[in-house]
Amino acid sequence: MVGSTDTIAALATPVGTAAIAVVRLSGPATREIGEGIFGQLAAPRAALHGDYHDHDGTVLDDVLVTFFAAPNSYTGEDTLEISCHGNPFIAQKILQDLLRRGCRSAEAGEFTKRAFLSGRIDLSQAEAVMDLIHARSERALAAANQQLRGSLGRRMDELIALLVNILAMVEAYIDFPEEDLPPEDRDAVMQQLRKLQAGTAALLATGHYGEMLRSGIRTIIVGEPNAGKSSLLNRLVGHDRALVSAEPGTTRDYLEETISIGAHALRLIDTAGFNTNPTALEERGMAKALEQAATADLFLWVIDAAAPLPALPKALAALVNSRNTLAVFNKSDLAAPSSVPADLPSLRLSALTGDGFDEFRSMLAKLADAFRTDVGDEVIAINARHAQALSRATQTLAAAQAKLAGNEPIELISSDLRETLHAFGEISGRIDNERILDALFLNFCIGK
Questions:
Q1: 341, 369, 397: which is the final residue of a domain?
Q2: Domain range holding 319?
Q3: 353 and 405 part of one domain
Q4: Which residues are bridge partners to 51 per DSSP?
């Protein structure tokens, strides 16, 4: 554990008026400060009820105090949590008093940083704390919970263990240059490298789903003017977010709202209608719609059921398929449906009356669920930082395989593998070169 000389304090609950507020302090002086305020503290993890007396002896509030003894605390240090009434003024007075008693104001994320430095969590678990706080859907919450409990860390440990063994095998021949790597060993190393590459690629493939969970599935509403795109948005959101008019072309720019559908959060984006004879302003709106479509995960193609089936612009038609598009025949209360787009799931509904919306939500949830990417029996959803590190790892692994296939010097292969190990280490924050030495001596019995 990396020792901390400061005892830090901060509000652990959101700023604002509430039933209670929690002030947390952590560090070497925690017990001393707590006993200075409350006298004898209760046993670790047991709540103590008492008055909070400030440095001058004034009672600030009636509080509950819980002491967590190192190393069995969130930070791995002695930690104290003070639950006071949720008046911001009271919480601030308690914080000010703790600073007078020798605490320092905690920096952003410092409690979690100390948890990492003390070995309580790895970097991926630390990031999961923030994902858990900001989760906006059941799937995002489940993925964050699994990562907080070490799902990604365990997968990385498996990859690192495999890589360490490969490195130990390779570097044994560097340390003992009179022994050349025989063909059978090269084949064994290549097999292990391919296994490692496959495991790395499987994790990297979860990156886009991770972005969907954190930001919401980008769902673009497209169609001709006056097909009912804005009415559909309003019905889904539950209030009049977009202007609706019988006059076509009401939406010139795009509007965005986030909703929950099934277990996912969807970022709904209402776009300008695709008009075959647009005005100059409509052309600009259509260009913006195509820009949004280029980064879409899902499409809701809204079609006026009373009109002939329209054609999508070529750039948009190239993006839609049966996995990412739902054809929505609107105005079912007024007309029979026109012909159905080939190979696309579709349904009828009325954005005006709400008829058909239960089926619509069910179909939309099914399309969203199809994006789920599992690794084994766990939901793993890496973030952009993880993806960057894993991308570098796939490149250096590919380079190592190419060098091995080309019978290049073993030192060059080792260098690529060391770069891979460094990339892996950036995800968990835990790489120990001693592990390679341990594996080398264990597997090869050198010096015995």
A1: 369
A2: 212-369
A3: no
A4: 62
- According to DSSP, the β-strands at 298-304 and 217-223 are parallel
Report the 10 Å Cβ neighbour count for 316.
22
CA distance 220 to 241: 15
**Contact (Cβ atoms closer than 8 angstroms) between residue 266 and residue 298:** yes
219 & 335 share domain: yes
Q: Which of 20-24, 76-80, 272-276, 444-448 has the lowest mean pLDDT?
A: 444-448
26 assigned to some structural domain: yes
* Residue appearing with tokens 């006298």: 39
Q: The whole model's pTM is what?
A: 0.79
pLDDT for 447: 30
The answer, yes or no, to whether the previous bond of 310 is cis (omega within 30 of 0) is no
- Computed from CA positions of residues 225, 226, 228, 233, in that sequence, does the dihedral angle turn out positive or negative? positive
- Chain-centre distance of CA 82, in angstroms? 30
CA distance 206 to 285: 33
d(CA 397, CA 163): 10
Kindly state whether residues 328 and 305 are assigned to the same domain.
Answer: yes
Q: Is residue 375 part of a domain?
A: no
Exposed, middle or buried: residue 358 (CB in 10 Å: 0-12, 13-18, 19+)? exposed
How many residues are listed for the chain in this entry?
Answer: 448
pLDDT at 255 over 90: no
Token reading at 412: 């060059």
| Mean pLDDT of the 107-111 span | 87
- The Cα 180–Cα 169 span in angstroms is 12
Q: Which of 320, 335, 369 is the last residue before a domain boundary?
A: 369
Task: Give the CATH number, domain containing residue 232.
Answer: 3.40.50.300
Residue with tokens 């690192």: 160
Joined tokens for residue 292: 């949004």
Q: Is the pLDDT of residue 246 over 60?
A: no
The total number of structural domains that make up the chain: 3
**Do residues 365 and 409 share a domain?**
no
